[in-house]
Amino acid sequence: MGYDVIVVGGGPAGLSASIYTSRAKLKTLLIERKCCGGQMAITDLIENYPGFSSAISGFDLAIKFNEQSKLFGTEIIYDEVASIEDGSTKKIITMQSSYETKAIIIATGTNIRQMNIPGESNFIGRGVSFCATCDAPFYRDKNVIVIGGGDSAVQEAVYLSKFAKTVTIIHRRNKLRASKILQEKIALHPNISVIYNSILKEIYGKDLVEKVVITDIETNKNKDLKVDGVFVFIGLVPNTLALPNIKLDSIGYIMTDESMNTSVPGIFACGDIRKKQLRQIVTAVADGAQAAISAQHYIESL
Predict the structure, then answer these.
(1) Domain check: are 136 and 275 in the same one?
(2) How much is the pTM?
(3) How far apart are CA 201 and CA 56, in angstroms?
(4) Does 134 qualify as catalytic in the annotation?
């Protein structure tokens, strides 16, 4: 069965693209690996998305995106894309099947960056987490640390403070990079503290995390800290697929122009997967809309 457009990725960019292509009466298939919403779906509160005067949970916003896409006729399946083949008719090969299409929109987003330190991989799910919204209730009245100093780290620290006894932010610089409004929230939560100029060196424990070793990067001295949980928010890495000769930057983000065209005609990219300055839900949605219009124009030109 052939499609006009296949969207790979069900985050805000992919869902936005599918809404626009489906509204344009293009037969649209959206392939998502896990669950629609991407990182938006595991974000506790979203306060800066236009149209909502009060905060909305990322999960609830993801549901609204998903429902709207289906309303306009998008077919959504859950599968993992193995490869993409370019040609007069493009083909997407998944773990379960293969699909032909005239145009492809890649919206695979990013994955959480790991620290790659001793103990991290051993304790994932047993004290090491990359999602406060998912795992915070497991750390009620316990001591946790948050690694990072950007918006995500501070926002998740604030959320964790509702459950944990203490939340300690470990940041390698001498000041946080998070927005001022988020930094101000730390002062409202007496159980949140910050250790600056420090990095996490190692994670220890038996069955669960019991302590960590922190290194002061100015003095190069180590100290042990007893903790029950480690939450990591140190950035993102592009979730790049096996792509047919598509130009990437040195990190692995897809290079596009302002119309979301990649270096391969008929293949477009939008959202966090493409090289861009600002990665927010609102910019992902805009990217998705532009990618959809560009895909429509491409199909009309065939």
Answers:
(1) no
(2) 0.82
(3) 36
(4) yes
